[in-house]
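Convert to structure. Protein one:
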Amino acid sequence: MKDIKYEGVKALTFTSIMSAISLVFVLITYFVSGTGLFLILVLPLIAALVALKVNLKYSLIYIFATFAMSFIDFQNALFVILPSLISGILFGYLIRTEVQGYYIIFLISVLNIGLQIGATYLVKGIYQIDLINVYSNVFHIKYEVFSSIYYLFLFVLSLIQTVITYIIMTNEIKKIGFVFNEKKNHYIWILLTTLIFSLLSVILINFAPSLSYVFIGFSLYFGVVLGYYHFSYYQKKLVLIIQDVLYALSLLFMFVLMFTFPSNYKPLVLLLPVLGEFIMSIIVIIYSKIIKKEKLNNTVFENKN
């Protein structure tokens, strides 16, 4: 873990300044309509900066102070500001503990799913408003259909928000001496994680389709991470040729199976690109471990061409 920069009076002063800055942004969104999205992007960034510069006690003080001062708009404070502060603090601590960037994006996205699900039930309990019904009307999707994909919908929204925050923070945190850990040394763990989520999505498709769909989303995310590893593999030309063939076959079979699969199994067709990454993983493992006798570490996944 990186050394904490501020302690004692300096930490308290820094926390107070960050709370004041956060409140300014909250007031801007309160008086200027249409700036809510800006707040969702900025607050996690400020909260992450707090987590990077002070310890947990002062981070909690920051959350409490900012949340309390934001109660001029109770709904905004509870459903927008508090989730943004919590995700931002976790973002910062994951950076400090040097967790890989792709894990950070996933964990923050999953945290946001939990917070949004909680908000869904709170809104229904307090205001008697069914957010699932609201979204289904907005997108003109039947309520039964949208309720089954609601968790996946929340994951996609959270993922987009987290990726944007990640991109912004990548450059900003370098200014204070921190960098994201992007070492490619977790290949087997990523492969196993993708496999587990893929199997869960298949197993649960008939018993808990809502969970199955969100696990499909998780599988696709880690499938992209696998692709990131593969495209960084030192035998890049070989990988590109094989990957192009696998992607073409995946698209072809997706098109065919969408017309032939039973309707309740059609979402599983989305796993075909992930299956392509599994095949690529087998090729990489056989080539590296058996033929070349190499370790699947960060060195192997560096482009040397």
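Protein two, convert as well:
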Amino acid sequence: MKAMLGLSVVLLLACTATPFLFWQGRMSMEEYKTALAVLSLAYFVVATVYATRRKPS
């Protein structure tokens, strides 16, 4: 469970950093769009799986 939480935090930080990388000119528009789409999708999948897992009793 902690690994899923850690992964979701890393993905959220990556989603947040992507616009700054584009703004600094380190990414093209196509790279920006692709990275943001992939990272956002991965974040929502991991966060949903983490949120719906039952805690062991």
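The chain has a mean pLDDT of 91. The radius of gyration is 14 Å.
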